[in-house]
């Protein structure tokens, strides 16, 4: 066994098992990156609220079922705006197969 280790010691170059300056530089850069990440994460965790409970826990519930179907103020305007074609959208087809707008025809 000692003969085998003596032969291996003669064949191994001097650099085996030693880290160079590039390895040291890589370790230092990684340690700096980890330190900056820990610092950033601790700042973000300080901004997290202690509780995620909403300020108004009880939503507004209508008294009668008719109130569910009454339109809110401005709801009609929103419906008409939602039905309008968008500027970059292709013309929409109607139920009878025609397209809306001047591009159809």
Query: What oligomeric state do the depicted chains represent?
Result: single chain
Please state the CA-atom Rg, rounded to the nearest Å: 36 Å
End-to-end distance: 94 Å
**Mean residue pLDDT:** 77
Secondary-structure-derived class: mainly alpha
Count of alpha and pi helical runs = 4
- The percent of residues in helical segments reads 40-55%
Poorly predicted parts: none
Strand content: under 5%
Q: H/E series, N to C?
A: HHHH
The count of DSSP E runs of length 2 or more, i.e. the number of strands, is: 0
Basic shape: elongated
Q: Report the biggest beta sheet as strand number plus sense, adding barrel if it closes.
A: none
Written account of the structure:
- By secondary structure, the protein is mostly helical.
- It has helices at residues 2-11, 21-47, 66-69, 75-83.
- It has a domain at 21-46.
- It is built from 4 helices and no strands.
- The model has no long low-confidence stretch (mean pLDDT 77).
Which descriptors would you attach to this protein?
single chain, 105 residues, elongated, mainly alpha
Protein topology:
Blueprint: H1 2-11, H2 21-47, H3 66-69, H4 75-83
Task: Provide a brief overview of the structure.
The chain has a domain at 21-46. The protein is 48% helix and 0% strand. With 105 residues, the protein is mainly α.
């Amino acid at each position: 066994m000692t003969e085998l280790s003596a032969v291996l010691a003669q064949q191994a170059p001097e650099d085996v098992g030693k880290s160079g300056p590039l390895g040291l530089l890589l370790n230092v850069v990684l340690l700096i990156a980890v330190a900056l990440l820990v610092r950033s994460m601790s700042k973000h965790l300080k901004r997290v609220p202690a509780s995620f409970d909403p300020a108004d826990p009880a939503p507004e519930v209508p008294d009668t079922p008719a109130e569910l179907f009454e339109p809110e103020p401005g709801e009609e305007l929103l419906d008409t705006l939602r039905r309008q074609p968008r500027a970059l959208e292709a013309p929409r087809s109607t139920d009878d197969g025609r397209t809306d707008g001047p591009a159809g025809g």
